[in-house]
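User: Let's play a game. I give you a shape written as tokens, and you guess the letters that built it. Ready? Here's round one.
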């Protein structure tokens, strides 16, 4: 007895109604599988966002749950402010915002601020440094702890900015 779509379709003439119906059924199954896969990705993403919300205190006025928001990266970075003040903080990168927090315990963070990434850009600097330029042109200078972490942050920031650039005219 035939077991795969190819075996079944080979067993019947291409011009037959059954062959056409089988092709149509296979196409609908592929679309259903794609829908299920996308739903699982969205569900996993929302679960991750909810977990971030649970870990961060003091952000009651900031809603992270948004159907269009996608979690991208999290981790510790050192920020060098304009006055050369150095701050070790913990960051959560999403497809549209960067949330800045302070570690207050194991897996617990206090909300400090966030900035929107729309129309921003990223610049690789020497060593472990990189700069994110916000839409108002203000540079945010960061230092990663390792070369690997820097590359991961750069990749995820680039993904965010490239995605925004692609969808700029669609909104």
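Assistant: Ready! My guess for every position:
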């Amino acid at each position: 007895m035939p077991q795969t779509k190819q075996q079944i379709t080979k067993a019947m003439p291409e011009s037959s109604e059954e062959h056409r119906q089988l092709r149509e059924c296979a196409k609908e199954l592929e679309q259903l599988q794609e829908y299920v896969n996308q739903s699982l990705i969205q569900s996993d993403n929302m679960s991750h966002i909810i977990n971030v919300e649970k870990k961060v205190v003091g952000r009651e006025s900031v809603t992270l749950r948004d159907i269009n928001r996608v979690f991208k990266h999290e981790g510790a970075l050192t920020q060098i402010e304009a006055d050369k003040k150095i701050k070790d903080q913990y960051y959560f990168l999403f497809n549209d915002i960067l949330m800045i927090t302070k570690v207050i315990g194991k897996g617990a963070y206090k909300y400090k601020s966030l900035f929107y990434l729309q129309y921003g850009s990223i610049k690789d600097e020497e060593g472990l440094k990189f700069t994110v330029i916000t839409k108002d042109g203000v540079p945010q200078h960061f230092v990663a702890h390792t070369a690997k972490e820097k590359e991961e942050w750069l990749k995820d920031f680039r993904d965010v900015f490239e995605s925004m650039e692609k969808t700029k005219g669609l909104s």
